[in-house]
Every structure is written in C-alpha cells, then in structure tokens.
Amino acid sequence: MNKKGYPSIAFNSGDFVVYPAHGVGKVADIAKQKIAGTELELIVVNFDKDKMTLRIPMAKVDKVGLRKISEQATMNDAVNVLKGKARVKKIMWSRRAQEYENKINSGNPVAIAEVVRDLHRNENLAEQSYSERQIYEQALNRLASEYAVCNKVSSEEAVAALLSVLTKENK
Question: Rounded to whole angstroms, how far apart are CA atoms 112 and 100?
Fold first, then answer.
C-alpha cells in the first residue's frame, strides 16, 4: 500500500479480478463518488453471474483481498491438487463444512481445488448430503470461473476440463 492508502496493484477498467467472497468479476469503472461529504475513489466491479455490482473504496482494496486473476502457474498448481487423493478429515461435518467455506472464501485457487478434490464423488460412491453438494458446487463454480478467464475458455469448458481431471485421477 502506498502513502495515499491506495493498493499496490493497479486495476484498469475491463480487467478481470477476484473478490474472495464472490469470485471472478470484471472492473467496470474506476470512479470518484461523494459519500457522506467525502469524495472517494471507487473500483466498480460487476459480477455478471450473480447480477451484482460492488463498489470498493480504493483504500480498502488490499484489506478486502481484491486481486487480479491468478497466473497460469498458480492455476496449474490448483489442477495438480485435483489430481491428488482426497483427504477427508475424521471430524464432525459442521467443522469440516466451516473449514471448506473458509477455503472457498479465501479466494485462493489452490485451497478451492482442495475443497473440490475432497468433496468430489464418482457415480458409484454414496450420495452426498445436500450441504455437502452445495459446498462442492460452490467450490467447483468458483474454481471454474477463474480457470475459464485464465485459460480463455467458456465456463462450461472450464467445468468440463476440471471434471475430466477429477474423474481421470480418481479411477
């Protein structure tokens, strides 16, 4: 963070970014707005999938964890995590679910890949509970959206690519 309290990363209109709690969005604008008598410089981020727009004060960007899309090397690390063996801890589901939610909301693609890997079920395994399925789908969609932007493919192609890695490795 520099002297004025602005983030160390420069964002431009049209850039894809990751907001940890919501996933991939696109910077629509960097605007000045007067709020409560104070003029603030805001980054306006649109999340088309959720039909949501966030206005983040420039001084809070580092604190909320807004970042650019991951480098290809980081995305490759996340895909490699999917190739690994599921590591399910033998603790209560509620505690595991909380850990999974924290990993998803960290915005770290490698941590999100761990959640996807651990909760992925092949067709021949027992059915997942509703909450397990919800967390799995949230993690898969979050990872796929960043994978899609990073690799310049559609979201559907990204999901298919990630699932093919999961099913190939788990046979």
Answer: 8
